[in-house]
Write a structure and sequence with these properties.
heterotrimer, A mainly alpha (about 525), B alpha/beta (about 775), C mainly alpha (about 70), A: about 525 residues, mainly alpha, 5-stranded mixed sheet, 24 helices, 5 strands, B: about 775 residues, alpha/beta, Spore Coat Polysaccharide Biosynthesis Protein SpsA, Chain A, 8-stranded mixed sheet, 4-stranded mixed sheet, 12 strands, about 10% strand, elongated, glycosyltransferase (chain A)
Chain lengths: ~525, ~775, ~70
């Protein structure tokens, strides 16, 4: 029985992977719904392999590179199956994989902490099939990867705190944090909270055991050494990221400052009906955050209850948990207040993950210390997890609270759905065009055009943003023999399109060197480049 | 300038004064010595004369009363089973005198003879023709009974009964020979022991010998070693041999056939035997310790650095490369670069995997305190400790203290201090220290090569221990190390020939260099080495604290005296013979090199040795592959090549990187085509970081483990200096280039490491920073 | 020129004296060791001789007091 139990988490992981992938493919292929960000990440990886000048730098320096990086091996199969790229399925496979990893990790952690098998299984089910986690395990976004790394960090931290495999745990924290940084920038605040937690634990341990034996310098040295061990990988990763930005893009903080960065994208926020009123009002911001966090904070009540039973509410460990849980929401509060965040629901999910990663430890302690109350604790856990799942589902179906998820649920009314169908149409049309003119080339900014690029077959005739000569060709399309230019209507983020930025009003009026060739649904226009000199003669 | 000169003059004159006064002192002392010697000689002579006179008096007294004499004779001849009231324990000479078989004059003559030539008094009187051999035998048979050794010693007045009881008590718990225990406890001297043994066994005792006679009569060394016997005097009618323990009838018979004369044995103490052996067979021992491996396994000896084939192969490779360069220098360089990059990459990965293995709990053999305590000391075997040293007499007192701290029965220790012949200072220091008898000074005769492995070989030949270990003079082994190794050998498979203890440094706080060095050793011995053992590939042993089974080590041919990293070489040879090595969780603390120049010397010697070892074993790559198997072969390649090659290649790539950023010269990226570019980039970005990070993690690991054991001679503050590891790499590059240069110039030159600069001050085990 | 020559000379002398000094220290140690060895050897020999002497004295005494009749 025991041996069997050891393998079951892996079987469950495989099953979950299959379910998530099937769901993701169903959404992408039959329902034509994949979030834009997810496809964009696939596209970044795609450029590395299949643009007319393959190089790793094409992965782009705006978004954290890890998700795209991990997709590259999957995309190697694109020649066999076009949909991997065009429908963003590579991303879906990746997130499903990480959803499975996360479930296995949690499952194993529960069993390692001596929780009954069925109980552990129930918790894992309530975690993995929480509507939010299930959706994000199948939609190719970066969240699922981040969730995995965060969970890894927290479990390692708890192990360290509990003095199990202490050095190995620190090393694991180090690498997981670095990988998290390569996935999402939220890791910075989370990392800071973790660093602070290390200090708290070391200090409280000193007060408990060491103060009599060792001097303050000793504890300081120990703390410093521990921080180096846990933080060096992420610090180094940060430095390398900045250096790469500097070396390749000429600006160390390119990822913050570029046209396409999150910051730039959120500039139009003040006009947003949901976010606009919140900016600059702390009370409103708090309410905004709280409203979206409630479903994800419910499981924290379990731990609070266990702590009360164990009479350990005011302890260093609990303080650390609170710090970790609050770290990312605090960052959101700040950014919302400054008008720098869209406040999507997905930004608030992390307390849920952190709490669940912490839960096995608490349950084990409860089992050891108060056996008679353990069953009660277990029941409350399951009830709260179910409540959380329900509340999450409720929030996701509310357009105001969760616009993205609402779209996913009501995919056939979503703009994404329509734009995807349009992209497919444009790609088809362009393929025919380029196929006819073998020597023609088409310039398009992949920032907006990624979906079209992914859908196309004649990709080697494209000139895209990551190409090393993109700038040159954009500045002088005539001389550089560009045949066509594809450009989106300058609305919303599309105003940041390189062509729109470089040639004002190009969409509406064209230029002396470009003649309108075709308009697609009043969303995209294709211009043909002509030699103005020739025309005059 | 003037003042400076004056100051210098003053110190100069100070020294001059010291020299003069010391010269005078020496004269004075020499005279005093002569004086004392003469005076004492006179005392002894007077005493001897008095004894002679006593004999005369006794004879006279007997002659005066013949009736009484007859009665006395009867009394003596009466074989007494119970304690005789009169004349208890008469010696042979006295007995003969009282029986009237020899006269006092004859007795005194015989005693004088004994004083000059040694041997047994009984034999002498027979030889001088005073008594016939049969008569003597009869007398001996009827009069002497065998006594227990301890009893004998008490009766001779060397030992009090209480002391004997104490020693017997100790023997019960520790086991072993009572004589050796008494010596180890300092209750009797080895001379007294031998004397007692001689009288117990009714044989002679080695008193004096004539060196020239001994040299003339010497047996072939192999015979001598087989019988553990040395011929002291050899004439037609008899052959006197000195032995440590008596030969049995059969051995005597065989030896007698060889020397073609009846044999008389005399006993000598182990120490005397050692000296004798040294005098008689020095040449043979020296020859064995330098040439044995070379003669028996020339393929494993580094006496020749490059074989002809290797030189030819190298020339051929050189020509091919040159030709390729001429054909197309660019492609050739790219090709070479690709090979180097792939090698570099695989080494990085391998090292990381090894460390992962090393973090396993069972990678080292661990024992609890209880396990150590529950050892039955009677089962502990003899243990030989070899301490080679050269010109480090200042650390000898420390060494003695550290070795005395070992928790091991002293009577089962055979500590051999290996001193080079020309290191007079060490010899004098050792003599003036009056070391316990478990310490023996072995003087290594002059001869090339003058290396540590040669000294060890020399010390090993006559090692008495079942196990043997090497310590450097400044080493501080954990007190329980020998016992842990004993347990480790017991619970390991039979083919385990070597147990390596972990090395670390006690002066990590001294300066940045010692910090780096400590980090390096911590990683190497705590993580990498156990990892390598887990993977079962050849191990380059650490320079000291490697414990061997003596017989296996001898069978293997011991150390290669021509190899400057004999330890790494031995690791490979162990693997060839399918012996295995393991790491025990016990530490030996050493002194880390604290001076840059010195460090470079030491490191370049190591790196040179690794290259040397590689060259030796790669004389026949195919055969090596067959001997080591695929895993062993590549493991050995990795172990031997990574330490010299990585630091040698590093500067090339670093300078390429710097040139690239300074000039953006187009030819640099051209050397890194396609995937190689990414490999190199991963190497640069990830590889370097991983090395630094493993250094941090390894150091933390060790410090943390100590912290959990409540030891704190290594500080957590060491961890932060791992961030500066690249500086250390730079230093290693310098050393490796120097090593390459030396390998070609003077392959056997032994760069000596100096120790004992400032031990007390920087010792973290003593002045802990609480 | 002359100053540098003289400093050179001084340094040479200095080094020589230094090594001489060390050598002498060693010699002194050697002589002292020698003395120690002589003493130790003497003591050992003397003890042996004394034991023998006492033993002989004992025998002499016993001869003197040996009962003439041979009975106990």
């Amino acid at each position: 029985m025991m041996v069997k139990n050891k393998r079951i988490p892996y079987y469950f992981g495989i099953a979950l992977f299959i379910i998530e992938v099937s769901f993701g493919i169903w959404m992408a292929h039959w329902n034509h719904f994949v979030p834009g960000d997810a496809v964009s990440r696939v596209a970044n990886a795609y450029y590395v392999l299949f643009s007319h000048d393959p190089h790793l730098g094409a992965i782009g320096f705006v978004w954290n590179p890890l998700p795209s990086l991990l997709m590259i091996p999957i995309l190697l199969l694109t020649p066999l199956c076009k949909a991997l790229a065009s429908e963003g399925i590579a991303g879906i496979i990746l997130t499903s994989l990480f959803a499975a990893f996360t479930a296995v990790l949690l499952f194993k952690s529960l069993l390692r902490r001596k929780q009954p098998f069925l109980f552990s299984f129930a918790i894992v089910l309530l975690f993995s099939f929480n509507p939010f986690l299930f959706l994000y395990g199948a939609n190719g976004m970066s969240e699922m990867l981040f969730i995995y790394f965060i969970m890894f960090c927290v479990i390692a931290f708890v192990d360290w705190m509990d003095e199990k495999r202490s050095v190995a745990s620190m090393i694991m924290i180090g690498f997981a944090l670095a990988l998290a940084f390569l996935t999402r920038y939220e890791s910075i605040l989370f990392g800071a909270a973790l660093a602070l937690s290390l200090l708290i634990i070391i200090w409280s341990k000193r007060n408990k055991e060491e103060a009599a034996v060792y001097g303050i310098t000793y504890t300081y040295n120990k703390w410093e050494a521990s921080e180096w061990l846990a933080l060096l990988p992420v610090i180094y990763t940060g430095i390398i990221w900045i250096v790469l930005n500097w070396v390749i893009m000429g600006d160390g903080l390119f990822f913050l400052r570029s046209n396409y960065s999150n910051l730039a994208q959120s500039e139009g926020l003040s006009k947003n009906p949901t976010i606009g009123p919140v900016i600059g009002h702390y009370g409103a911001t708090l309410l905004f955050v709280l409203e979206r966090s409630i479903p994800f904070l419910l499981p924290l009540l379990t731990i609070l209850m266990i702590r009360i039973i164990r009479r350990r509410v005011f302890s260093a460990g609990f303080l650390c948990l609170i710090l970790l849980v609050l770290s990312i929401p605090v960052m959101q509060i700040y950014m919302l207040d400054k008008g720098a965040s869209y406040g999507w629901l997905r930004f608030f999910v992390y307390p849920f993950v952190i709490t669940l990663a912490w839960l096995p430890y608490e349950l084990q302690k409860l089992k050891e210390q108060a056996k008679h109350l353990y069953i009660l604790g277990g029941c409350v856990t399951l009830i709260l997890l179910s409540a959380s799942a329900y509340a999450t589902g409720y929030a996701m179906n509310n357009e105001r609270l969760a616009p993205e998820e609402y779209q996913a649920i009501h995919y056939n009314q979503s703009p994404t759905y329509f734009s995807n169908r349009l992209s497919l149409h444009i790609a088809d049309d362009l393929d025919q065009l380029l196929h006819k003119h073998k020597h023609a080339s088409l310039l398009v900014d992949s920032f907006n055009g990624f979906q079209i690029i992914l859908d196309m077959k004649q990709t080697n005739q494209l000139i895209i943003t990551s190409d090393l000569d993109f700038k040159k060709k954009l500045n002088n399309p005539v001389k550089e023999k560009v045949t066509y230019i594809l450009i989106p209507k300058p609305e919303g983020v599309a105003t940041l399109n390189a062509v729109n930025e470089h040639y004002k009003n190009f969409y509406y009026k064209g230029a002396d060197f470009a003649k309108l060739d075709k308009t697609y649904d009043d969303q995209w226009r294709l211009y043909r480049v002509v030699n103005p000199e020739k025309g005059k003669r | 300038m003037k003042r400076f000169g004056w100051k210098k003059n003053k110190t100069l004159s100070n020294i001059e004064a010291a020299v003069t006064s010391k010269t005078e002192e020496i004269q004075q002392l020499t005279i005093e010595n002569e004086e004392t010697k003469r005076r004492l000689q006179l005392h002894l002579q007077a005493s001897q004369e008095e004894i002679a006179a006593s004999y005369e008096r006794i004879e006279k007294a007997l002659n005066e009363d013949p009736q009484k004499w007859t009665l006395i004779k009867q009394q003596i001849q009466k074989k007494s089973d119970h304690q005789a009231t009169f004349f208890p324990h008469l010696r042979i000479g006295e007995r003969l005198l009282l029986l009237g078989i020899i006269t006092a004059k004859q007795l005194n003559q015989s005693l004088k003879e004994q004083q000059i030539h040694g041997g047994r008094l009984g034999d002498i009187v027979v030889r001088l023709g005073y008594v016939s051999a049969d008569q003597l035998k009869q007398i001996i048979d009827q009069s002497f009974q065998r006594l227990l050794l301890g009893e004998l010693l008490v009766r001779s007045g060397y030992l009090s009964r209480e002391e004997l009881d104490e020693a017997l008590h100790y023997q019960e718990s520790v086991g072993g020979d009572i004589g050796e225990i008494l010596v180890a406890m300092g209750l009797i001297t080895p001379n007294q022991l031998t004397e007692a043994l001689a009288s117990q066994n009714q044989t002679g005792r080695l008193i004096t010998y004539d060196k020239n006679v001994v040299l003339k009569a010497k047996l072939p060394e192999t015979v001598a070693r087989k019988f553990k016997a040395l011929v002291i005097r050899h004439s037609v009618d008899q052959c006197i041999i000195a032995v440590e323990s008596l030969l049995n009838e059969e051995e005597l018979h065989r030896l007698a056939k060889i020397v073609d004369a009846p044999i008389t044995q005399v006993l000598a103490s182990p120490w005397e035997m050692e000296l004798l052996w040294d005098q008689v067979y020095q040449e043979e021992l020296l020859h064995e310790s330098t040439e044995k491996l070379k003669n028996e396994q020339p393929e494993n000896s580094a006496s020749q650095t490059f074989t002809l084939t290797q030189i030819i192969v190298m020339i051929v490779i050189g020509i091919v490369i040159a030709a390729a360069l001429m054909w197309n220098w660019f492609y050739t360089l790219v090709f070479i670069n690709i090979i180097i990059q792939l090698m570099y990459f695989s080494m990085t990965v391998t090292k990381f995997v090894m460390i992962l293995y090393g973090t396993k709990e069972n990678a080292q053999i661990r024992f609890s305190k209880q396990q150590i305590q529950s050892i039955d000391e009677r089962e502990l075997p003899m243990y030989t400790i070899l301490v080679p040293m050269y010109k480090e007499s200042n650390v000898i007192p420390q060494l003695v203290r550290n070795l005395n701290r070992l928790d091991y029965p002293k009577n089962k220790l055979d500590i051999r201090l290996l001193i080079e012949k020309d290191d007079v200072e060490a010899q004098e220091v050792i003599q003036s220290l009056h070391l316990p008898y478990s310490f023996q000074m072995i003087i290594i005769p002059d001869g090339q090569p003058k290396t540590k492995p040669k000294a060890c070989n020399y010390g090993l030949i006559r090692a008495r221990g079942k196990y043997v270990v090497i310590y450097d003079a400044e080493d501080r082994p954990d007190p329980d190390q020998l016992k842990k190794v004993f347990l480790a050998f017991q619970q390991s498979p039979d083919n385990t020939a070597c147990i390596q203890a972990k090395l670390n440094y006690f002066n990590s706080k001294q300066n940045l260099l010692t910090k780096f060095f400590t980090q390096e050793y911590s990683n190497w011995f705590e993580l990498l080495l156990p990892g390598i053992m887990q993977m079962n590939i050849p191990i380059p042993l650490g320079g000291t604290s490697n414990h061997f089974k003596t017989d296996m080590l001898k069978k293997l041919g011991a150390w290669d005296p021509y190899n400057v990293t004999e330890d790494a070489d031995l690791g490979i040879r162990l693997y060839k013979q399918e012996y295995s090595t393991r790491v025990v969780d016990s530490r030996t603390l050493e002194e880390a090199n604290s001076q840059f120049r010195n460090w470079i010397h030491q490191r370049s010697r190591w790196i040179k040795g690794y290259m040397q070892t590689w060259l030796v074993h790669m004389r026949h790559p195919i055969r090596l592959h067959r001997e080591l198997g695929i895993k062993g072969f590549w493991g050995a390649q990795f172990m031997l090549l990574s330490s010299p090659l990585l630091p040698m290649l590093n500067p090339i790539f670093w300078s390429l990187l710097i040139i690239w950023y300074m000039t953006h010269a187009g030819w640099i990226p051209a050397f890194f085509p396609g995937i190689i570019y990414y490999l190199a980039a991963v190497q640069l970005i990830l590889g370097n970081f991983l090395f630094i990070y493993t250094n941090i993690a390894g150091t933390y690991w060790v410090v943390h483990e100590l912290y959990r054991k409540k030891e704190n001679w290594l500080s957590y503050s060491l961890v932060r200096y791992a961030l500066l590891t690249p500086i250390y790499w730079g230093m290693m590059s310098i050393a490796s280039i120097k090593a390459l240069w030396q390998l070609i110039r003077k392959p056997f030159y032994w760069e000596k490491t100096e120790h004992g600069f400032d031990q007390e001050r920087y010792d973290t085990t003593k002045s802990s920073s609480l | 020129m002359s100053t540098s020559l003289s400093t050179k000379l001084i340094r040479k002398t200095f080094i020589k004296l230094h090594s001489d000094n060390k050598q002498l220290d060693l010699q002194i140690l050697a002589i002292k060791n020698e003395l120690d060895r002589i003493r130790a050897k003497y003591e050992q020999d003397m003890r042996n001789l004394q034991t023998t002497q006492e033993h002989l004295n004992q025998i002499e005494k016993e001869i003197k007091h040996f009962p003439k009749d041979g009975s106990k």
